[in-house]
Amino acid sequence: MYLIGLTGNVATGKSTVCDILAQLGARIIDADLVAHAVLRRGSPAWRQLVQAFGYDILQYDGTVDRRKLGALVFDDAAKLQTLEQITHPAVGTELALLVRDALNEPGAADAILVVEAVKLYESGIHEFMDALWVVTAPRAEQKRRLMQERGASQAEAEARLNAQPALDEKLKRANVAIDNGGSIEALRVQVMRAFVEINPAIARDKNALLQKWLRLAPAAPESPETSAPATAAKPAPAASESPETPATPLDIEPASVAPESPETPATPLDIEPASVAPESPETTMPAPTAESAPPSEPEWSVRRARPADARMLSELLARIEGRAEPIGREEMLERFGKFGYWLAYTDDHAIALAAWQAENLAAIVRELWAENDGYAARAFPLLLEAIQAQANALTCEVVAIVVPERAAQLAAIAAQTAGYASSDVAQLHKLWRSVIEPLLIDNATLYTKQLREIVTKPI
Fold it and tell me: Taken in order 7, 11, 13, 14, is the CA torsion positive or negative?
């Protein structure tokens, strides 16, 4: 796999370059969207930010207000350093998880993966790239884009441009420099010329990246004929591990995504909601009976969606919603930051799904899907049980099923099998109603289950 690190200052057109690369067949990872995901409410990075900067940086729903945070650190070097010390390791870990998953996909050897990051050099991610691309544009053009395309005032645009670091040192180390000061046609020609020069065969081994950002120790080589003697030297532990920490094979979930505390675990990228709570152990379901599925049906499991499920989920959700094409990467990352996805799974085949979010002490199931009613009746109780466990950890008081009309029959099955009651929104607690009622459009269904005694007060 050939890994390109792409960077540039504000309004130079990095996203446009990425769009062209995607059209040419490259896969794009937007580090800014990754940063959104790692700062989801309740994550380890979120807790560190709150501890460092206080609750004033949060919006009413507990998510980070990036405008407030940006204004706070904009002209304060010490606060900016604190912010980067919190976010850079978290983003690096999530990027490494994406790289690891991409390495396990078919055709990985010839794949071209582009990491777009403003802080590519500052975070240290650039060290592991096969090539570094820097996008530039004249200052006047940057200012025009900030004002016309992003709505900044002249003073705001000047302030942002003055705060940008010089690109001289980055350009010295860049393999490719893209001038985006002209027409889109001129830009496309530059990108295509650089793209055709890429040779994935000369890509570096990615183990060094995984070992640093996922804190994995390299596996000791094994002889095909004899095993290593008992006195063989052990691999040196990673810098972040203690000597007692055993080496972890590269295909095992890294320490960096394990729970930071018993209350709230760190979760993999961009497929967990802002409100994710501790994951319950994977639940095994008995094989379906002859009445609901073929006798040869393998064992099922119920689990939270993983990074490797992202492509499958984009296709599945598009099919559920009647779309002609899979959901795009940016929209999927936005969804992963908003919803938590739980799957009933067998081998490499998803047979049921539930998506949920939490706000104002109400956990809301927003999507239900199953291959057939038999699967639904068996899978939904376990999917909802897993969601309830997470909702309880977040001290939610109620779980509501609010799904589109297309899932009305599935919602009825879920309610009947998992003990949910049909509800009148007008009878709900005022705080819950404030977030549930706006979702009841286009004949959406509503079922609820109260988890605990009501202790909230209306706002």
Answer: positive
For residue 429, which amino acid is it? H
Write down the pTM of the prediction: 0.52
56 neighbors 68 (Cβ within 8 angstroms):
yes
Read off the pLDDT of residues 370-387 as tens digits, 9 standing for 90 and up: 999 989 999 999 999 999
* Residue range of the domain that includes 414: 283-450
CB 390 within 8 Å of CB 430: no
3-state SS of 369-395 is EECCHHHHHHHHHHHHHHHHHHHHHCC
What lies within 8 Å, CB to CB, of 67 at 6+ separation is none
Residue that terminates a domain, selected from 189, 211, 233: 211
> In terms of domains, do 298 and 186 share one?
no
H-assigned helices in 347-372:
none
Shared domain for 202 and 315, answered yes or no, is no
Of 132 and 277, the one with more pLDDT: 132
Pairwise CA distance, residues 347 & 357, whole Å:
27
Instruction: Give the lowest-confidence range in 5-9, 89-93, 300-304, 436-440.
Output: 300-304
CA 49, CA 32: separation in Å to the nearest integer?
17
Counting Cβ atoms within 10 Å, is residue 241 exposed (0-12), middle (13-18) or buried (19+)? middle
